[in-house]
Specification:
418 residues; alpha+beta; FAD/NAD(P)-binding domain; Elongation Factor Tu (Ef-tu), domain 3; 2 domains; seven-stranded mixed beta sheet; 33% helix; binds flavin-adenine dinucleotide
Length: 418
């Protein structure tokens, strides 16, 4: 291992040690009005909203610090919302429509404006003005501290059960010296915000869970000559075809991999594709079939001129298509509709979102309260909600966090005032 790598590893270990010490220095009370399980995107917002209403709030976070999941988003730039939060971009449009109401984007932007965040728009995607996810994470942490939220990091919740007047939560704390300590506490309201992992707490609360599976990830495809161009990128319009029906299409950049396809447009497709589905790649979508024929065979002799697509496509892709086509019609056909067959999701460790989790039918969309367990709420990816790339998933995390956190505080403080 190089000296540089050894130094990096040592400095990461030191930082982790310091964070574990800081986490250990936080003393937890025996009882909170609201406990939020998970200090990621949704959990931090839920904690802030609950505390700003006057509730005594603890966010229990398994990692050594809160908000780390936010840092990796949007390639470190954090595409935190979209100007067109269309519920149809989500797997359960009805539930999301009811939760979003009429003003989801305004609510999200007002929240972040109050945090001191400024943003920029790229097409319909919103990013922090600094184009750094750390900006957004830092303003959230600062607001949580100002609101008086206790951030109980390095503590993984592994048990939760209902009590007569609320909930009891058990957790395991990672200690600086490498050992672990068990702890437990009570709360009046509990917010589940543990993201796409399957926390054992849900089972203890008797909640219905939908099986998890990664979505928003690359797709593996049946072998094809195109896949020999591993690493090559192309602008394409991709159509998903099942049993002869065109189900969905979207344009964007795709990345050719030896096992299949990646890129944002493919991530979106991975939410919809089944094994055996056909993928039609239009590699020259701005041109009609005839316009393309004019380029490859201007005199319509049925033969194409070698190199005729080099000015339109990546030359290696163009040359591969030329090698496969016997006529100009065939070449234009391949460029306008290259066929691949999907085998399933691939490289799942890099999936951005996991479908499944808490069945939404157990929760009221308007405040994300659980019908069968008063005082219980859920938000973010813990619920079975996922969406396309473009800021939709984080938008759900923020808005659902606001709803759940405010309602959890309202329920607890309302009960206390009676
Ligand atoms: C690489 C990558 C890039 C992405 N980019 C974007 C993007 O640009 N735009 C977008 O909209 N979406 C993006 N997403 C998706 C987005 O990050 C998630 O939708 C969002 O973070 C979900 O928020 P959440 O709070 O529900 O879960 P998370 O943010 O994952 O937070 C869950 C938290 O709970 C903690 N936790 C888990 N189990 C326990 C437990 N038992 N006890 C205590 N704590 C626990 C975790 O450590 C974590 O901190 C991206 C995802 C990935 C992986």
């Amino acid at each position: 291992m190089s000296q540089g790598k050894t130094r990096d590893r040592a400095s990461r270990a030191r930082r982790r040690g310091a964070l574990l010490c800081a986490a250990d220095a936080i003393e937890l009370a025996q009882h909170y009005d609201v406990v939020v399980l998970g200090g990621g995107a949704a959990g931090l917002v839920a904690g802030i909203c609950a505390a700003e209403q006057g509730a005594k709030v603890l966010v229990l976070e398994a990692d050594v610090e809160c908000g780390r999941s936010i840092l990796a988003t949007g390639n470190g730039r954090c595409n935190f919302a979209n100007t067109n939060l269309d519920p149809r971009r989500y797997n359960d449009a009805g539930f999301v429509r009811a939760a979003f109401g009429e003003r989801a984007l305004e609510d999200i932007l007002a929240f972040f404006s109050d945090c001191g965040l400024r943003w920029v728009q790229e097409e319909d995607r919103l990013y922090p003005r600094s184009r750094r996810a750390a900006s957004l994470r830092n303003v959230l942490l600062a607001r949580a501290r100002r609101a008086g939220v206790t951030l109980g990091c390095a503590r993984r919740a592994d048990e939760a059960r209902r009590t007569e007047d609320g909930f009891c939560v058990g957790f395991t704390q990672e200690l600086p010296e490498g050992s672990a300590r068990r702890g437990s506490l009570r709360c009046s309201s509990l917010v589940l915000a543990y993201g796409g992992t399957d926390a054992s707490v849900a089972a203890g609360l008797g909640l219905e869970l939908h099986e998890r599976r990664p979505v928003l990830c690359p797709l593996s495809c049946e072998d094809s000559p195109l896949l020999t161009l591993d690493g090559r990128r192309a602008q394409a319009r991709v159509t998903l075809v099942r049993e002869g029906k065109r189900l969905w299409d979207e344009g964007g950049e795709l990345l050719i991999r030896s096992y299949g396809l990646s890129g944002i447009v493919i991530f979106d497709l991975s939410r919809r594709a089944h094994e055996g589905d056909g993928l039609l790649l239009d590699l020259a979508s701005e041109l009609t079939h005839d316009e393309l024929l004019d380029l490859v065979d201007p005199k319509r002799r049925g033969r194409f001129v070698p190199g005729c697509l080099d000015g339109v496509l990546d030359p290696d892709i163009a040359s591969l298509l030329e090698g496969l086509a016997c006529s100009s019609e065939e070449l234009a056909g391949l460029a306008k509709g290259f066929r691949l067959r999907a085998l399933g999701t691939a490289d799942e460790t890099h999936a951005q979102v996991r479908r499944g989790g808490l069945a939404c039918s157990q929760f009221a969309a308007q405040d994300l309260s659980c019908a069968s367990a008063p005082g219980l709420f859920a938000c973010g990816e813990a619920l079975d909600i996922d969406a396309d790339c473009g800021g939709f998933n984080l938008a759900w995390a923020w808005k659902s966090g606001m709803l759940a956190g405010s309602a959890a505080a309202g329920q607890t403080l309302g009960k206390a005032s009676h």
